[in-house]
From TrEMBL:
Residue ranges, annotated region (Disordered): 1-25
Protein known as: (2Fe-2S)-binding protein
Upper lineage: Bacteria, Bacillati, Actinomycetota, Actinomycetes, Streptosporangiales
Named cofactor requirement(s): Fe cation
Signal peptide: none
Record bears the keyword Iron: yes
Keywords: 2Fe-2S, Iron, Iron-sulfur, Metal-binding, Oxidoreductase
Length: 465
């Protein structure tokens, strides 16, 4: 794979750094000793969790909100991570500021959830101090009552985080000395640009709170190795005998610098290996049912029109579907990307963006996951899910709102596939605390994206800031 380094505009090496030396491991409790084992304590130790709060979340680029959540000047969204709160505010010139969400007087939070600051003023609900939406203090009630030096400009303006945008998202970094966003997202942002994720908008989004560590939750989606056992309704479409213990799905896995990784379609998924004839249309119906993400009803309509001409188990059905989808997007005025192998190989795959964001592109859609710690508890996380899609130009939806927080077993709001995953995730968190369980054991072929993420995490935790 060739990707351009944003720092030099030249082809760059994208392979991971690999296992860390003593200069890193000596500074990290429960550090990674090799690439095939992850110490169990990393998922529940308070010491390790507190080090993440200090060294990771305070110094890493992280997805804070979708751009369309703050479409107009004065619109804001609150982003919270490990007890720290920030306001993402759209400015008059269209840019975004990320402001610390605390009054400079006595610390009152200035905004909650999402909304709009009327009149271009952020007003403290306690004593009425005011700021412009760029963070400059515009009014202090009873200024005459304060001593000299207490109200100096550099003390009462709202502090800022670094902020940048990519792919329709707003990203922040609390560390004002951090490097640029595109360097941090290298090379996965370049890879996802092949499917123009920046053209997509929110179709829906919602969340669930899970009783597990944030890392454990997201690792469940770093591999498709679990599909045969966890999602048999998907695996049976590969026409593989249940007694066959060989993994026939054969996606291709890659780990990258900066802790990122992906898996994408391999030969078997193109219907050309082992003689397995995948029923592409039936697979799409199963993915759509109860999900309405990655595969949408409009995609099924296109595929069903193709099935009248080509058998869905015929390898030619996939090629005919691609033709039909691109023709449909053009006729419907839906922005499409260049039809290149780099884009099509991503369909049905999974791109992990360190430390906690995943994008799963399919057709002109994308399923996205953000996993964050919850309630200052190493064994709880907030798992947010977005369905993104490209809309006809001029018919994009308005400002999106979360559908809410729903229980992991709520069949009215979660399809069968996510409910199957949620169940496994919480059971893992309980299992790793068994007295006899000291470390996970990873498959060198299927699961090295997990160890690559942990090795990058150790480098972050050992860093001196």
């Amino acid at each position: 794979m060739t990707v351009t380094d944003p720092r030099t505009s030249t082809p760059a090496k994208v392979t991971p750094i690999g296992p860390n030396g003593e200069e890193v491991t000596s500074k990290v409790p429960f550090h990674m000793k090799d690439s095939l084992h992850v110490p169990a304590e990393r998922y529940y130790s308070r010491e390790f969790y507190d080090l993440e709060k200090e060294k990771l979340w305070s110094h890493v680029w992280q997805m804070a909100c979708r751009e369309e959540e703050i479409p107009d000047p004065g619109d804001f969204v609150e982003y919270e991570i490990v007890g720290k709160s920030f306001l993402l505010v759209r400015q008059n010139d269209g840019s975004v500021k990320a402001l610390h969400n605390a009054c400079r007087h006595r610390g009152t939070q200035l905004g909650k959830g999402s909304g709009r600051f009327p009149g271009g003023q952020i007003v403290c609900p306690f004593h009425g101090w005011r700021w412009k939406t760029d963070g400059q203090c515009s009014h202090v009630f009873g200024r005459e009552g304060f001593s000299d030096g207490v109200l100096s400009r550099d003390e009462i303006d709202l502090p800022e985080c670094l902020v940048d945008t990519w792919g329709g998202h707003v990203w922040i970094n609390m560390d004002r000395d951090a490097g640029p966003l595109r360097e941090a997202l290298f090379p996965v942002a370049d890879i996802l640009d092949h499917v123009n994720v920046g053209n997509m908008r929110v179709k829906w989004w919602k969340e669930v709170v899970l009783n597990c560590n944030w890392k454990l939750a997201q690792e469940a989606f770093f591999e498709s190795y679990h599909v045969k056992q966890t999602h048999p309704q998907l695996y049976t479409q590969h026409n593989q005998d249940d007694a066959d213990e060989t993994n026939r799905s054969l996606p291709e896995y890659q780990s990258f610098v900066n802790g990122h990784g992906l898996f994408q379609g391999g030969d078997a998924q193109r219907g050309s290996t082992h003689g397995n004839a995948t029923n592409v249309l039936e697979m799409a119906r199963v993915l759509w049912s109860g999900q309405d993400a990655m595969t949408l009803e409009r995609d099924l309509w296109v595929m069903e029109s193709v099935s009248g001409k080509v058998d869905p188990t015929d390898p030619q059905f996939g090629l005919a579907t691609v033709d039909a989808l691109f023709e449909y997007w053009e006729s419907a005025g839906i922005p499409a990307y260049e039809r290149r192998p780099e884009a099509l190989r991503l369909w049905g795959g999974d791109v992990f963006m360190f430390p906690n964001y995943l994008m799963l592109p399919m057709y002109n859609n994308c399923l996205c996951y953000r996993v964050t710690p919850h309630n200052d508890d190493p064994e709880q996380c907030k798992f947010e899910v977005w369905s993104l899609t490209a809309y006809p130009e001029g018919n994009e939806p308005g400002r999106p709102e979360s559908l809410g927080r729903f229980d992991k077993d709520d069949a009215d709001h979660w399809g069968l596939i996510p409910r199957q995953d949620f169940s496994n995730i919480e059971r893992m968190q309980q299992g790793i605390k068994a007295p006899s369980f000291t470390e996970t054991r990873l498959a060198a072929k299927w699961e090295l994206t997990i160890s690559n993420m942990h090795e990058e995490l150790d480098r972050r935790l050992a860093a001196e800031y």
